[in-house]
Amino acid sequence: VSSTMPPSINPLITPVPTDATNPSVTVGTIKIQWAGAKFTQGVSDFIQWSRQLEDSMCLNNVDNYVFEPLIPSPDPALEPRANANWKRNNKIALTYIHSTVADTEH
């Protein structure tokens, strides 16, 4: 089998056995809702808002989907469950950011 085949169709690549029961990335949840003022361009202090955002995302354990060091996406061929969890957590992080911005800014 050619090594240039995509992992998803390469029969030599098998998922990590622990991925099914103990994936390297677990599904996160937002436990602490945004309590700060929503960001509005030209009105809000961006630096203060971004610091509050990072702190709040840290408390919800989704900060490293946005802020350095970033959590890399697991290889879907080797860790399909962890990869699906990563995608879900990444979406949670983006949704959380949207919840901190005024509706007029979307």
Would you write up a description of this structure?
15% of the residues are buried. The protein has helices spanning 46-59, 80-99. The chain starts with 45 loop residues before the first helix and ends in a 7-residue tail after the last helix. It has two helices and no strands. The chain is mostly helical and 106 residues long.
List the keywords.
single chain; 106 residues; mainly alpha; 2 helices
Helix fraction by DSSP (H/I, runs of at least 4): 25-40%
* Overall pLDDT: 91
Order of helices and strands: HH
DSSP strand tally = 0
Please report the number of helical segments. Answer: 2
Biggest sheet features: none
Q: How far apart are the first and last residues' alpha carbons, in Å? A: 48 Å
Shape assignment: elongated
Q: Assess the beta-strand content as a share of residues.
A: under 5%
- Which class best fits the helix and strand makeup? mainly alpha
- What are the low-pLDDT stretches, counting only 5+ consecutive residues below 50? none
Radius of gyration: 18 Å
